[in-house]
Amino acid sequence: KKINGLDSISVEAGQDVLLKTGTLDSDVLNLKANMGKIEESDGFVLETPVLNATANNDILLNSKANQLQQVNVANANGNVYIVNGNKGAENLAISITTTGATINGDLTVYNYDEANGAANKIVLANNLSASGTIKIINEEADVTVGAGGNIKATNITLQAVNNNVLVAGGVLEASSKVLLDGVDVTISGGEVKANTAELNAADDISLT
Predict the structure, then answer these.
(1) Burial classification of residue 60, based on how many CB atoms lie within 10 Å of its CB (0-12 exposed, 13-18 middle, 19 or more buried)
(2) Cβ distance 112 to 84 under 8 Å?
């Protein structure tokens, strides 16, 4: 089952949006679950440069087949889980579009290694806030925090499994712990504030 909209596709439900089998392919995808959750099964495909997902509860984009670039999320309560397996070389960017750019739950972003595709960096260059934890994990390329990347949560994890974590600006603020984990970890700007800060690198840690 494939729905292909040249300019945009909008899917809006009074309760839940459940994406079990098929593909939504368009320049812009709008998903909205007014009183419920958005939940995607692994194997479903969301293919779009711009995804707008709004829900009252959880937003669970669980498929490694997703082809995503810019993901904009907003929910009242619950967790947000974003999985990407884009075969192209585009960066993956995340925005929270609620007031205060805040999620009342956990935010997890996982970019899987697509063996037959190009590598996708994750670039954090805006406000991301969660009442729980924020985990940003990239199996393919770097995780970079830019000048506008103000990230706030109870615990923050930035992990580049086979690549580098780069903090070039912005603020990482955790009431408990900040973990930066990569082959190389470089902090060339910005600020890290936490009860516990942990920098792990297989090779080099640079504070420049």
Answers:
(1) buried
(2) yes
Write down the pTM of the prediction: 0.96
Q: Does 74 have pLDDT greater than 90?
A: yes
Q: What is the mean pLDDT of residues 90-116?
A: 92
**DSSP classification of residue 163:** S
Copy the structure tokens of residue 44: 């479903």
- Say if CB 8 and CB 30 are below 8 A apart: yes
Cα 46 to its chain centre, rounded Å, is 14
**CA–CA separation, 16 and 99 (whole Å):** 22
Token pair 């997902």 is at which residue?
A: 53
Instruction: For the chain, give percent helix, strand, coil, nearest 5.
Output: 0, 65, 35
Distances in Å between the Cα of 98 and the Cα atoms of 60, 72, 128, 152, 204 are 17, 10, 10, 14, 37
Strand partners, 50: 28, 70
Phi and psi angles of residue 62, each rounded to the nearest 5 degrees, phi first? -100, 5
